[in-house]
Amino acid sequence: MLVIVTENVPPRLRGRLAVWLLEIRAGVYVGNPSKRLREFIWNQVLEGVEDGNAVMAWNTNTESGYDFLTVGKNRRIPVDFDGLRLVSFLPPDEPEKAL
User: Which of 12, 21, 29, 93 fits as disulfide partner to 4, beta carbons 3.0 to 4.6 Å?
Assistant: First the structure.
């Protein structure tokens, strides 16, 4: 199983993803491609994400049972904790103060 979630990506990338995966909600794609196709799809995401962001998660033979990749600016960042992939949160952006 493969899941890709996109935010603020160009419509052409969303259309390309819909060629290989089913868009079950706006920006949420699922499917069951081979490893080779999964890597090809991720390269398409890297080339087309522009100012948006995306995450791709898939099942694999690891302790957690899945792995994931991210691209683009997001408060959630992947961290490696003794071989286990977890997600850390950056502090929220502070609003600019008026002078």
Answer: 29
Measured CA distances, 80 to 13, 31, 84 (Å): 29, 26, 6
Cross-strand bridge partners of residue 61: none
Residues of the chain with pLDDT under 50: none
pTM score, two decimals? Answer: 0.82
On whether the 2-89 domain is CATH 3.30.70.240, my answer is: yes
List 69's β-bridge partners, or say none: 56
Query: pLDDT at position 63, please?
Result: 82
Q: Where are the domains of the chain?
A: 2-89
Six token digits for residue 42: 């991720």
